[in-house]
Amino acid sequence: MTKKIYFFYILIGVGIGIIFSTFIFKLNPIIEYKQYSDDEVIEKAKELGMVFVKENIDVKPSSKEEYSSFVVKNGDTLIDISNNLFKKGFVDDPDEFTQFVKDKGLERKIAPEKYELKKNLSYTTILKILTEKE
């Protein structure tokens, strides 16, 4: 037999299989479809831990940057200053900040006074603020 004949029988077999399986599934469908309302979909999504993006975004614009005071007392060591910055939330790791200041050679340049800092400043910016004299 030639390749054309084999191909013809394969196509007939596939076609008969598709028709037969379609007929079987039409008589007894396994899948049951349910129409969900929007509220049901949202409730199910919340059960699975999904949230609306708008619920998690702070939409009020912050026109005024929030500053907090930070005091360096007379006699504070670099380790004390780093720990106090960590406690107030200005630095993530006091040991890392201490090493950063030592690497810059500015551990003796921090003057005891009251500073106004804001959150999420870089170590470079914090150190610049703490070492500048007014």
What does this structure look like?
This is YceG-like family protein. It comes from Acidilutibacter cellobiosedens. Keywords: Membrane, Transmembrane, Transmembrane helix. The chain crosses the membrane at residues 6-25. Helix content is 52%, strand content 7%. It has 134 residues and is mainly α. It has two domains: 1-32; 67-131, Endolytic murein transglycosylase (Dna Ligase, domain 1, 2-Layer Sandwich). Strands 1-2 form a two-stranded antiparallel sheet. Helix 4 packs across helix 5 (94-104). The chain starts with a helix and ends with a helix.
State the name of the first-level CATH class of the largest domain.
Answer: Alpha Beta
Query: How many beta-strand elements?
Result: 2
End-to-end C-alpha gap: 99 Å
At the fourth level of CATH, the homologous superfamily of the largest domain is Endolytic murein transglycosylase
Task: Give the DSSP E fraction (strand runs of 2 or more residues).
Answer: 5-15%
CATH architectural name of the largest domain: 2-Layer Sandwich
* Oligomeric grouping of the chains: single chain
Transmembrane segments: 6-25
Organism: Acidilutibacter cellobiosedens
Keywords: Membrane, Transmembrane, Transmembrane helix
Protein name: YceG-like family protein
Brief synopsis:
This protein folds into 2 domains: 32 residues; 65 residues, Endolytic murein transglycosylase (Dna Ligase, domain 1), CATH 3.30.1490. Helices cover 52% and strands 7% of the residues. It has 6 helices and 2 strands, in the order H-H-H-E-H-H-E-H.
